[in-house]
Specification:
alpha+beta; 2 domains; 11 strands; 4-stranded antiparallel β-sheet; 220 residues; D-Maltodextrin-Binding Protein, domain 2
Length: 220
């Protein structure tokens, strides 16, 4: 699968050194790594200060669906095809449970994880896949989690192939200092995206080998 135009443009800017650093999803990072030789610098921590997330399968709280096997004949909502969460279930999990994509009624991708939650909570789709962080944030909307992936390293902050060590070092140093248990940093990050709200730790390319393995097994 190729990188979409907007991500491709960003990767070109990175490769040419026009951008000092960028945030890419785990799936896009691996595609960009292979094509442009960019480097991962940092990965975000979750609410337990662990450097990973999980993709989860959600349904309405009143749904009769209890497992992945129950998805046969059901309507499935997914986030972007350019995300790990948008691939995890249909690429890796369905076949483990004796299903194929053709066994589902339909599959539709949406641009954002919260849109997937909305579609499921409204009953427009029978089930959906989102990041665990997003699912937990919207449990009050009448959804529940019925399956989850193995831990996946957080989507990385990346730098160009020929990065400036002074600039990169400054970025790394500033972000690694963040400790949300300290009131000073709580004020700094209060308006940041929740994905970055718990700080960072160093990342290396081999951290993303589990994602590589899943994509390779599907020929992506």
């Amino acid at each position: 699968m190729s990188i979409k135009t907007c991500e491709l443009s960003l990767c070109f800017h990175l490769a040419e050194g026009k951008v000092a650093a960028a945030f890419l999803g785990s799936y896009i990072y691996l595609k960009a790594r292979a094509q442009f030789d960019i480097h991962c610098l940092l990965k975000p921590l979750n609410e337990n200060f662990e450097p990973f997330f999980r993709s989860v399968l959600i349904v309405r709280r009143t749904s009769p669906i209890r497992s992945i096997e129950d998805l046969k004949g059901r309507r499935l909502a997914l986030p972007s095809e350019q995300s790990f969460s948008g691939n995890w279930l249909i690429v890796s999990e369905l076949r483990k449970h004796g299903l194929q994509v053709t066994d589902l009624d339909s599959v539709h991708h949406f641009p954002h994880h919260n849109t997937v939650v909305y579609q499921v909570s409204k009953g427009n789709f029978d089930a959906g896949v989102v990041k665990d962080r997003v699912a937990k944030e919207y449990l009050h909307r009448g959804i529940k989690i019925i399956a989850c992936s193995d831990p996946i390293p957080g989507s990385p902050i990346v730098v160009p192939p020929e990065y400036n060590p002074i600039v990169t070092g400054s970025i790394r140093g500033a972000l690694l200092k963040i400790d949300v248990r300290n009131e000073k940093y709580q004020k700094i990050i209060k308006n940041w995206d929740r994905e970055f709200a718990y700080g960072f730790m160093p990342a290396q390319d081999s951290d993303y080998d589990p994602v590589r393995a899943i994509l390779k097994s599907s020929g992506k």
